[in-house]
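Please study the protein below:
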Amino acid sequence: MKIALDSDKSISLLKDDSFQRYDFAKRIAELIKSNTNEDSLVVGIYGRWGEGKTSVMNFISTELKKSKKNILIKFNPWMFNNEDQLLLSFFQELAIGLNTSLKSRKEKVGEFFKTYASSIGSLTTILAGGLNPKELLNSIGNKLANKPLEHYKSEINKFIQASGKRITIFIDDIDRLTVEEV
């Protein structure tokens, strides 16, 4: 007796489309491409587990990639612990998609100090004044690196306007989030 097992792996190639979803996805991609409104457009793909939602998104992505005017970003929101972390990561993904950096040089230096403060914290205290190096570097890092999320949102808006491109964000696995997280 032979038992066949199928995986839950999504597909992205037309040749693998056994359920004729590609034409449906192509129509959605055309809708997205033809939208001339400056406002955001939200397209939701609903279905039960295993019905091909991710495959449809992959097909839409394949169609949108055919135009140089599109920037495609995939984002998985279920990977983050809190709202601030989620938003900052989302803004960073947008910046990467726009081929720019969300953080200034000063902020990167601040993050460097914050990252290595704990490593240096085990060293002896700085002789002049008896300061704890971990606290000192953390303090410097926080002053340089921490910006409010509103600042990053504003920066991303500037980058989007300057790009002159259409940005499509694919958010998958929303079913893994709680109602509050959504």
Remarks:
- Residues 1-67 form one domain.
